[in-house]
Specification:
Strand order of the largest sheet of chain A: 1-9-8-7-6-2-3
CATH class of the largest domain in chain B: Alpha Beta
Largest sheet of chain B: 7 strands, mixed
Number of helices of chain B: 7
Strand order of the largest sheet of chain B: 10-9-8-7-11-12-15
Number of domains of chain B: 2
CATH topology of the largest domain in chain B: Rossmann fold
Distance between the termini of chain B: 30 Å
Number of strands of chain B: 15
Oligomer: heterodimer
Order of helices and strands of chain A: EHEEEEEHHEEEHHHHHEEHHH
Order of helices and strands of chain B: EEEEEHEHEHEHEEEHEEEHEH
CATH superfamily of the largest domain in chain B: Nucleotide-binding domain of ferredoxin-NADP reductase (FNR) module
Helix content of chain A: 25-40%
Chain lengths: ~350, ~280
């Protein structure tokens, strides 16, 4: 079954049945925001959704995780520790599905990261499609992350009475068969799905003043653009944009010992290139002392370096960095400032 | 492609020799506890763990032809290096690697070599110099320029004496601040370059030193008309993972731990963040 239909009354039981075999996370309300977390029953904000405070990367690359355990006495010994319980993340939106598939490229590239790999292989992604922009600040379609082709096991598109299901992987297909009452969609349901997907195009205006494929060259040629100093002057270098970004994966490592100092762990935790110490080397030499330099580095990672390498924008347009930014730096505005440059 | 559960897990090793070289730098000979070959290229680095304290990138200082263990030399600057300095012979440490790309030995064969070392920049160069001296006939003229702040801060002083007496090595030393023992050159290392007679097309310059040194040495080599592809540099960054993930060593679009730390100036000049 490459496509399915699940009636809305059947999604609650599907969710409950999944919980018997998996840790299941879904979108929850937290104050005025949404977060991913555990919950007894199915619920989803539907069209009221705006991106969660943290993206679901927290289940694939936790904020802090153990790499190995060590005992220092009587003789030092090291023991790897990988925790990867089977889990389902329910209700992941296209922007975050893109974020996951881009992070896959990083961690599965060249030196496969065993921790990410173990978690990723034990994680099922059930997406819920977007048919209109979640708020005025998202720009997923502009960066090409609305129409997702990979990164999910199942993708549910609301077509009124129920969900049209796009099956992304054999694992998703099996899950659907084993846990849900999904059936093959009718012709009419398929037509409704296609019409809604087609209809949503007009809901998502293109927001950049240049073609997406121009960005790597645009960023390379605007290394000295005044916008870097302008946003550098207001940036607080707090690193919130790094933390909430679905495609920021940089980390630092450290040893954490228990009070006896005989046993402990090497861990890694999220790090952010906006933080002052990120590019500092021994003796205090720092290759990106200015906030403008660090912002330029981060923007180039999203729209130039990583994009040129993987052929896809590494900004997924979720708008989280803007919503989290205390001084309102908006990636669309930055890109458009660069795009305004007149070449003779 | 490494697909390995042990990607981030060090191999245990023993410090078999620890020797204070200067006030700040200490020399260590290290042997893996498990019997397996450890091969590397001069210029590559390892991630060295002081268990319970952390992990830091360190360049290898010994010749790859040395079979029984590797040597490193580490300046005491932060918490990890201070903890390392306190370790005695017989202590167990951890080691990952080797990582990165070292000096292009095949390209250097048959060429005249000009080494320019500033301070602890001599450490990675020592690995290559040892290799070259063991394969001396494969290489052309060998010149070593080495600058230190004071005469006491020269690393491997005994070896420098021996190299200087070999007759087929031109060794030139300079210090910023002389003391009563010093009768040699005083001043920045760039002053040693203009009097050299080089065959630019046949010469590779290999520069390792503090970031500030590179620009000035490059200007002097430019005067000597050395091709940019024949000027090699090793860059220092704080690699955390060594395997192209953690982001700390990134210069523009380049992960130093993957494509470096040894680069040609021809490559680096397009990276505005490099030096």
């Amino acid at each position: 079954m490459k496509e399915g239909f699940l009636h809305k009354k059947d999604i609650g039981p599907f969710y409950k049945d999944l919980k018997k075999d998996y840790k299941v996370y879904r979108v929850k309300k937290k104050g005025p925001h949404y977060v991913f977390g555990e919950a007894p029953d199915f619920w989803d904000p539907g069209e009221d959704y705006i991106p969660t405070i943290l993206p679901p990367k927290k289940y694939l690359q936790p904020q802090e995780e153990t790499l190995f355990c060590m005992a220092l006495a009587p003789r030092p010994s090291l023991k790897p520790k990988i925790e990867a319980p089977p889990q389902v993340i329910f209700g992941v939106r296209p922007c975050d599905i893109s974020g996951i598939s881009l992070t896959d490229k990083v961690f599965f590239d060249t030196n496969v990261d065993p921790y990410y790999k173990a978690r990723r292989e034990n994680t099922t992604i059930i997406g819920i499609d977007c048919l209109r922009p979640c708020d005025k600040d998202c720009f997923c379609s502009t960066v090409g992350s609305l129409d997702v082709k990979e990164g999910f096991d199942l993708l549910l598109t609301d077509i009124g009475e129920g969900y049209f299901i796009t099956v992304g992987t054999p694992r998703g297909e099996k899950l659907l068969q084993d846990f849900s009452k999904a059936r093959k969609p009718s012709e009419k349901e398929k037509e409704s799905f296609l019409a809604r997907r087609e209809g949503r195009k007009k809901e998502y205006p293109y927001k950049f003043k240049t073609e997406l494929s121009n960005l790597p060259l645009l960023f390379t040629s605007n290394w000295e653009h005044p916008v870097w100093k302008e946003i550098g002057d207001i940036c607080l270098a707090c690193g919130r944009c790094n933390l909430v970004c679905p495609t920021c994966y940089c980390f630092d490592t450290f040893d954490a010992m228990d009070v006896s100092l005989r046993e402990g762990e090497r861990r890694r935790q999220w790090d952010g290139c906006l933080l002052a110490e990120f590019a500092m080397i021994a003796g205090g030499v720092n290759f990106r002392t200015q906030r403008s330099q660090r912002l330029r580095h981060r923007f180039n990672r999203k729209f130039n370096y990583q994009m040129a390498k993987h052929g896809q924008s590494h900004c997924v347009g979720c708008g989280r960095c803007y919503r989290a930014c205390l001084v309102h730096i908006h990636p669309v505005e930055v890109v458009n400032r660069l795009a305004e440059v007149k070449h003779d | 492609m490494i697909s390995d559960i042990k990607l981030y897990i060090p191999t245990l090793a023993e410090i078999v020799k620890a020797q204070q070289l200067t006030e700040l730098e200490k020399f260590f000979e290290i042997r893996l506890l498990e019997a397996r070959p450890f091969s590397f290229e001069p210029g590559q680095f390892i991630l060295l763990s002081v268990l319970g304290v952390g992990e830091s990138p360190v360049t290898l200082a010994s010749s790859p032809l040395k079979k029984d263990g590797v040597e490193v030399c580490v300046r005491r600057v932060g918490s990890l290096t201070n903890a390392l300095h306190r370790l005695q012979e017989g202590a167990t440490i951890g080691l990952r690697g080797p990582f990165g790309k070292g000096f292009p030995i095949e390209a250097l064969k048959g060429k005249d070599l000009l080494f320019v070392a500033g301070g602890i920049g001599m450490i990675p160069l020592r690995s290559l110099i040892h290799y070259i001296l063991e394969r001396r006939k494969d290489f052309g003229q060998l010149s070593i320029l080495y600058g230190a702040k004071t005469p006491k801060e020269f690393l491997f002083a005994d070896e420098l004496m021996a190299w200087g007496q070999k007759g087929d090595v031109r060794l030139m030393l300079t210090v910023d601040k002389p003391d009563e023992t010093w009768g040699g050159n005083v001043g920045v290392i760039t002053r040693l370059i203009p009097p050299l007679e080089l065959r630019p097309k046949e010469t590779y310059a290999i520069i390792v030193g503090p970031p500030v040194m590179y620009k000035f040495v490059l200007m002097e080599l430019y005067q000597k008309a050395l091709p940019e592809s024949q000027i090699l540099m090793s860059l220092e960054r704080r690699m955390r993972c060594g395997v192209g993930k953690c982001g700390h060593c990134q210069i523009n679009n380049v992960y130093v731990c993957q494509e470096g730390p040894v680069f040609s100036y021809q490559f680096l000049k397009r990276l505005p963040e490099a030096i």
